[in-house]
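R.M. (postdoc): so does anyone remember the format we settled on? I'll just put the structure tokens first.
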């Protein structure tokens, strides 16, 4: 179905040989376009492993993984790299900004990797920073930015190449309640689009009401899903 951005069928992931660790045990899930889905559960339940598989960073041991119409388990490593460059954006918990680059240069990195001319890449990155309220800080280096400002640069970097699939790994874990809510507001405002799907891995119950779908995991399986009532305000 064209309206499904992400589909997993009986996905497993086993690490190790001598004493194998079964991180995923037959995961089934679907995430439609236009949706912000939260992947939640206790530490060690497999949610980060699943996120890495959905993002093309890990291969499943078995099962089918379809993202944006691509069967990831059938693709080569080089094909996955190209897919990530074009179609997938990442927001990491630790931001991972390059200290020697300014905010606008950090945000432009995905475009520069793709070979977009530097002037155009910086212009597009500057436009997203402006959208995120950082126009006046575009020439600042990471050490000159607050944690919240660094996070916004990381969000800009994830969105600058207009990916159709955005993945966020514990984006609020290191933040207080108010900062976490502001971060999720930003992600919802700038990232949730009809042509895009967003999956956020979190154990932060404070942000559950931002999810249009909440996917609960335990012991390597999806155990239930909820579609909450629309948020108000």
């Amino acid at each position: 179905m064209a309206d499904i951005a992400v589909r997993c069928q009986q996905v497993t992931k086993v690490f190790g040989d001598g004493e194998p660790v079964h991180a995923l045990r037959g995961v089934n899930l679907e995430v439609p376009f236009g949706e912000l889905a939260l992947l939640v559960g206790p530490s060690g339940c497999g949610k980060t492993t699943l996120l890495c598989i959905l993002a093309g960073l890990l291969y499943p041991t078995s099962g089918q993984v379809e993202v944006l119409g691509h069967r990831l388990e059938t693709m080569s490593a080089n094909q996955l790299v190209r897919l990530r460059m074009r179609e997938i954006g990442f927001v990491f918990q630790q931001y991972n900004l390059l200290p020697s680059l300014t905010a606008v240069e950090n945000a432009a990195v995905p475009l520069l990797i793709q070979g977009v001319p530097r002037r155009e890449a910086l212009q597009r990155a500057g436009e997203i920073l402006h959208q995120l309220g950082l126009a006046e800080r575009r020439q600042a280096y990471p050490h000159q930015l607050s944690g919240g400002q660094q996070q916004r640069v990381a969000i800009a970097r994830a969105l600058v190449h207009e990916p159709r699939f955005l993945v966020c790994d514990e984006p609020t874990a290191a933040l207080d309640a108010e900062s976490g809510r502001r971060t999720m507001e930003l992600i919802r405002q700038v990232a949730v689009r009809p042509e895009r799907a967003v999956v956020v891995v979190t154990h932060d119950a404070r942000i559950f009401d931002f999810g249009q779908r909440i996917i609960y995991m335990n012991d390597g399986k999806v155990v239930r899903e909820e579609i909450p009532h629309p948020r108000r305000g």
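R.M.: ...and that's the designed sequence above, right after the tokens. Also worth knowing: The longest helix spans residues 177-191. The chain has a mean pLDDT of 91.
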